[in-house]
């Protein structure tokens, strides 16, 4: 089954939703400042493309780097928790509690500590994204077949060999699966990071650009949001493809070609 055929139902549904949106705005006579029609959003994206795309480049860099930091931190912490029951009892509750931290407040503190560059934004994104990677990797490490580990012990394999040959291959798909979940909130994390930290340079990021447009250039704010949504979807499926490359033995969702 071709990729286009698999994507066709989603494309048809998107066209139907956009048509319904266009019809509703036209029938209700809504002004663009209240709810722009899809054609007005498309026009704003075309006319304001230079501003939107330059800001998007900043935000995309933040999301990618922040997600990489989250994957590295979440994977390393998951391995440490898996190998040490003491660390699991000590660190896992703190990792869970970190998700209740008010991120905007943390953003201000990070700027105070690390300055006005990109690094505080990356830390905010990583803080938001690392927990799904941590949880899915810990679960993947714990799901290794006990009989496989028992066989390796019978063959006199060391602890490192058992981890490298049995547990690590099981953990990598879990980490990538967690990264896909994290990406769904990573774009939101970049938006929060840009709003919560002071702007620097001529193009502070798409999140702050959306906030500055929302009251006076509403169609362009919607266009920026559409760009973020499209970016998140593209990255999600890119990670899904990477997961298939790393772990081709995993079962695929029903309806996908082999």
Could you explain the architecture of this structure?
With 258 residues, this protein is mainly α. Helices cover 79% and strands 0% of the residues. The chain has ten helices and no strands. It has helices at residues 3-28, 38-47, 49-83, 85-98, 103-114, 119-142, 146-154, 159-196, 206-213, 218-246. It starts with a helix and ends in a 12-residue tail after the last helix. The mean pLDDT is 78.
Summarize the structure.
Helix content is 79%, strand content 0%.
Number of strands: 0
Structural class category: mainly alpha
H-E order = HHHHHHHHHH
Q: What's the number of helices?
A: 10
Shape: globular
Poorly predicted regions: none
| Main β sheet profile | none
The portion of residues forming beta strands comes to under 5%
C-alpha Rg (nearest Å): 22 Å
Distance between the termini: 9 Å
Mean pLDDT: 78
Helicity, as a percent range: over 70%
Write the layout of secondary structure elements.
Blueprint: H1 3-28, H2 38-47, H3 49-83, H4 85-98, H5 103-114, H6 119-142, H7 146-154, H8 159-196, H9 206-213, H10 218-246
Please give a handful of descriptors for the protein shown.
single chain; 258 residues; mainly alpha; 0% strand
């Amino acid at each position: 089954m071709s990729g286009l055929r698999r994507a066709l139902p989603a494309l048809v549904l998107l066209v139907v939703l956009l048509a319904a949106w266009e019809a509703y705005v036209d029938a209700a006579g809504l002004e663009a400042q209240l709810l722009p029609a899809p054609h007005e959003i498309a026009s704003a994206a075309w006319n304001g493309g230079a501003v939107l795309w330059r800001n998007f480049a900043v935000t995309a860099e933040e999301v990618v780097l922040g997600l990489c930091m989250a994957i590295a931190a979440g994977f390393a912490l998951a391995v440490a928790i898996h190998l040490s029951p003491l660390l699991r009892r000590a660190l896992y509750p703190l990792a869970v509690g970190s998700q209740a931290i008010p991120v905007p407040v943390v953003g201000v503190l990070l700027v105070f500590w690390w300055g006005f560059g990109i690094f505080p934004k990356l830390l905010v994104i990583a803080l938001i994204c690392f927990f799904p990677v941590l949880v899915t990797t810990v679960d993947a490490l714990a799901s290794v077949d006990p009989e496989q580990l028992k066989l390796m012990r019978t063959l006199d394999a060391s602890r490192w060999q058992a981890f490298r040959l049995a547990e690590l291959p099981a953990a990598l798909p879990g980490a990538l699966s967690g990264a896909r979940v994290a990406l769904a909130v990573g774009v939101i994390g970049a938006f929060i990071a840009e709003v919560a930290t002071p702007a620097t340079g001529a193009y502070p990021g798409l999140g702050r650009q959306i906030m500055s447009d929302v009251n006076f250039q509403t169609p362009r704010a919607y266009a920026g949001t559409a760009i973020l949504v499209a970016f998140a979807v593209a990255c999600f499926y890119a990670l899904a493809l990477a997961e298939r490359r790393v772990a081709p033995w995993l079962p695929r969702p029903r309806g996908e070609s082999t």
